[in-house]
Amino acid sequence: MALYIGLMSGTSLDGVDGALAQFDGAAITTLAAAYIAFPPSLRAELMALQASGDNEIEREALAANQLAQHYAQCVAELLRESGRAPTEVRAVAVHGQTIRHRPELGFTRQTNNPALLAELCGIDVIADFRSRDIAAGGQGAPLVPAFHQALFGKEGQPRVVANIGGISNISVLSGDGRVIGFDTGPGNVLMDAWIHRHRQQEYDADGAWAASGKVIPELLTELLKEPYLALPAPKSTGRDLFHLDWLDTRLAVHAPAAPEDVQRTLTQYTAVTLADAIKAYGGGADAVYICGGGAYNSVLMSALADELGNQVLVASTQALGVAPNRVEALAFAWLGYRFSERLAGNLPAVTGAQGERVLGALYPR
């Protein structure tokens, strides 16, 4: 039996989710969960670092130091909530904040300062989970399908687990041990950027703003022409592709539209691209379980259910006993556990790597 903390800050750039998990053989038990929001200044700097700019090496290093402070706050909250001491936790597994993801060029960049985090927490830190898979010829993403199989896979029951964070990805769990997974396209990233531009809100709570608009069919058709969507798996994507400039280019060829109609269309875009991927690769699964922030957007969930049809159950992972906002943090706790046991953390069938690899790098306390 061993305790691990997983920390995840994703494409939405809103903050860090943390989970303290107990591993006992194949059994995984969540002991505590916590969330630490990023201040607007850090969020703005992390957003700016998504593209090249002046003095970016120093700016990234300073942002990494700030991230480590927030990660340490999350660890402290998890320990406080669970009543555990740092010495009881074997390791903190932390993803870092992706600011570049270019597997086609052989690299991915997750801003982080794991050495500082180890110093602040007094716990071993495991970081840099993606680069080894890329070194082995893989995409370095998504990494969560292996965990989805471990946590949600059930023999004889094909199902799909879809994570809707900034980017959407799916894990097709065949029911016989085989897993397919890839990034399907945008999750919340375009919706978040659009509502921030027009209403200065970080996200569209429960899809309320989108619900006030209507889908623009011609714009949806234009968005669906994105070549990434037609690429075969394995594949991965991020803000390097889907961002406001990408959207503005496509809006420029259409008549001016009400901002709320664009928001509703972007919500439909996420639903359609996700549904198309599930239909193409789902392999007879009759249930789709959603995790990530998108699970809390009822407009998006309803649109996805409509796209998939009445024969497919669409529910959040809460139906499987795990809150949607805890799954990714738990996934990195699991990856930390796998690293410590010198077990592979990737699935070559998902990432395209040449083989299974132990993922991560250790920063001892």
UniProtKB/TrEMBL annotation:
<dbReference type="GO" id="GO:0016301">
    <property type="term" value="F:kinase activity"/>
</dbReference>
<dbReference type="InterPro" id="IPR043129">
    <property type="entry name" value="ATPase_NBD"/>
</dbReference>
<comment type="pathway">
    <text>Cell wall biogenesis; peptidoglycan recycling.</text>
</comment>
<comment type="pathway">
    <text>Amino-sugar metabolism; 1,6-anhydro-N-acetylmuramate degradation.</text>
</comment>
<dbReference type="GO" id="GO:0005524">
    <property type="term" value="F:ATP binding"/>
</dbReference>
<dbReference type="GO" id="GO:0097175">
    <property type="term" value="P:1,6-anhydro-N-acetyl-beta-muramic acid catabolic process"/>
</dbReference>
<dbReference type="GO" id="GO:0016773">
    <property type="term" value="F:phosphotransferase activity, alcohol group as acceptor"/>
</dbReference>
<keyword id="KW-0418">Kinase</keyword>
<protein>
    <recommendedName>
        <fullName>Anhydro-N-acetylmuramic acid kinase</fullName>
        <ecNumber>2.7.1.170</ecNumber>
    </recommendedName>
</protein>
<keyword id="KW-0067">ATP-binding</keyword>
<dbReference type="GO" id="GO:0009254">
    <property type="term" value="P:peptidoglycan turnover"/>
</dbReference>
<keyword id="KW-0547">Nucleotide-binding</keyword>
<keyword id="KW-0119">Carbohydrate metabolism</keyword>
<dbReference type="GO" id="GO:0006040">
    <property type="term" value="P:amino sugar metabolic process"/>
</dbReference>
<comment type="similarity">
    <text>Belongs to the anhydro-N-acetylmuramic acid kinase family.</text>
</comment>
<comment type="function">
    <text>Catalyzes the specific phosphorylation of 1,6-anhydro-N-acetylmuramic acid (anhMurNAc) with the simultaneous cleavage of the 1,6-anhydro ring, generating MurNAc-6-P. Is required for the utilization of anhMurNAc either imported from the medium or derived from its own cell wall murein, and thus plays a role in cell wall recycling.</text>
</comment>
<dbReference type="InterPro" id="IPR005338">
    <property type="entry name" value="Anhydro_N_Ac-Mur_kinase"/>
</dbReference>
<dbReference type="Pfam" id="PF03702">
    <property type="entry name" value="AnmK"/>
</dbReference>
<keyword id="KW-0808">Transferase</keyword>
<feature type="binding site">
    <location>
        <begin position="10"/>
        <end position="17"/>
    </location>
    <ligand>
        <name>ATP</name>
    </ligand>
</feature>
